[in-house]
């Protein structure tokens, strides 16, 4: 998925307004014989650019919320302030095996357009770059009117 400071709600307009990036989230699901998710983990890979000198990533999460809608945190990558080294205005990180609640994983894989991933910085504690989850082929299915929770 593509991340952009312009996708944040509200859009970022300060010194970090040119931040863009790419995130890949891979879900590893265990399902029962009926196809229901019984266990889940996620792997995260992020690459982002456009950070001014002094920027520092502080958090990265999956939130509930369709495009333009802020929402609550559902999956935390475990990224902490100081956990990513910035070089020349770029940042990247990977997290693997992040536990995801089975019911949340089921909902996210069924209606990914209801959820977004974003990264946060010290300058933009509410988020610096955001992208909606998609189905892996770049498509964002229309939001489900009754997403989790």
Global mean pLDDT: 90
* Strand-pairing-aware structural class: mainly beta
Count of extended strands = 8
Separation of the first and last Cα atoms: 23 Å
List low-pLDDT spans. 138-149
| Helicity level | under 10%
Strand content: 35-45%
The total domain count is: 1
Question: What can you tell me about this protein's structure?
Answer:
- The model is unreliable at 138-149 (pLDDT under 50).
- The two termini are 23 Å apart.
- The chain is globular and about 50 Å long.
- The strands form 2 sheets. The protein has a 4-stranded antiparallel sheet.
- A hairpin with a 5-residue loop joins strand 2 and strand 3.
- With 149 residues, the chain is mostly beta strands.
- The protein has one helix at residues 102-110, and strands at 2-4, 20-31, 37-49, 57-64, 73-76, 91-99, 115-121, 129-132.
- The chain contains 1 helix and 8 strands.
- The protein has one domain (2-132).
- 6% of the residues lie in helices and 40% in strands.
Question: What's this entry about, in short?
Answer:
The chain is mainly beta. It has one domain (2-132). The chain is built from 1 helix and 8 strands.
Quick tags:
4-stranded antiparallel β-sheet, disordered C terminus, 40% strand, mainly beta, 1 helix, 149 residues, single chain
